Amino acid sequence: MFRPFRLAALALASALLLAACGSSGSSSTTSATTAKTTTATSSPRPVSVVGTTKSSLGTFLVGANGRALYLWDADHGSKSTCSGACAQAWPPLTTTGTPKASGAAKASLLGTTTRADGSHEITYAGHPLYYYAGDSGSGQTTGQGSDSFGSPWWVVSPAGKAIGG
User: Fold this and answer.
1) Contact at 8 Å (CB) between 93 and 155?
2) Taking CA 116 as the corner, what is the angle to CA 88 and CA 101, rounded to the nearest 5 degrees?
3) pLDDT of the chain along its 165 residues, tens only?
4) Is the entire prediction scored with pTM above 0.70?
């Protein structure tokens, strides 16, 4: 008589445990799947937006989350020469779609160049654009005027010119 009760209790406890674990995992999986589906449906090709912000330096270009965008004096034309350790410290702004402009940024100055690894880096007025790994927040410009990797780095004006360079 007690044996069926124990089996029923064990089965019920197992079912509740699986439901609790399955519910938690299932929600995460569903959310991740929904997010992937939504992203894939709304934008099959990730697009980067170049915008602007203002600071004591003036108005300059920003990318995702308002992070400052820089040009490097060592780049000549639209060809990027920053790779390896340089690209670790100064990640290129890449896209797989057509870049978009917002704020005071001009769509007519946006373009792309193909990097050595095959990715497409966004250019502005012919300059490849980079973030600085040392900038952790919106509007920070700690890379401004840095001479790392042998040439100065500058934030970029909406006219496509180095600010301070």
Assistant:
1) no
2) 75
3) 444 444 344 444 444 333 333 333 333 322 222 222 222 333 345 789 999 999 999 999 999 899 999 999 999 989 999 999 999 999 999 999 999 999 999 999 999 999 999 999 999 999 999 999 999 999 999 999 999 999 999 999 999 999 997
4) yes
Nearest to 64 by CA among 83, 80, 48: 48
Q: Under a CB-based contact definition with an 8 Å cutoff, are residues 61 and 54 in contact?
A: no
Strand partners, 101: 50
Q: Which H/E stretch holds residue 95?
A: strand 94-95
H/E/C letters for each residue in 31-75? HHHHHHHHHHHHCCCCCCEEEEEEECCEEEEECHHHCECEEECCC
Question: Letter for the amino acid at 46?
Answer: P
